[in-house]
Amino acid sequence: MALFSVNSHRSDPYKNFKFRVLIDGRPVAGLSKMSALKKSTEAVEWREAGDPSIVRKMPGRTKFEPITLEAGLTHDTTFEEWANLVNNLDGSAAMSLAKYRKDIAIEVLNLQSTPVLRFKVRRAWISEYQAAPEMDANANAVAITMVKIEHEGFQRDTTLTEPAET
What we know:
Elements: E1 19-23, E2 26-27, E3 31-34, E4 39-46, E5 56-64, E6 67-72, H1 78-86, E7 102-109, E8 115-130, E9 144-150, E10 154-156
Antiparallel strand pairs: 1-2, 1-7, 3-6, 4-5, 6-9, 7-8, 8-9, 8-10
């Protein structure tokens, strides 16, 4: 069994329920769910005229899937303020091109709530914002707000290393 290069005594992977998202350096309050960080590269097929009937493949465009964040409805206005930078409430087409894109961070936490992995998401912006869910007086559920974040790529922050666990 291969051990991890950091914290080499560790043999278990991290849990997926301990994470946080930082926007403008602050954790998003009430965050409960995040979609996967995913990228896909198109395969470009080509065939040389003199080759036998073999289709060759090479990498084409790379696309980064949007990230969906869900949070319990709280007094935190982080999502709302960011979404309003993309499209002003007064109906004007003018928006702050300097501010609507943000670099955000996604951190995976260990069981002691210490960040152990961090992903940097580049040039993110909100393409969809749900301020409040459908309400149901007969339901027994938490009210959830949601944003869909478009971005131009992510990478692991290799400067973050896990502290020794106790």
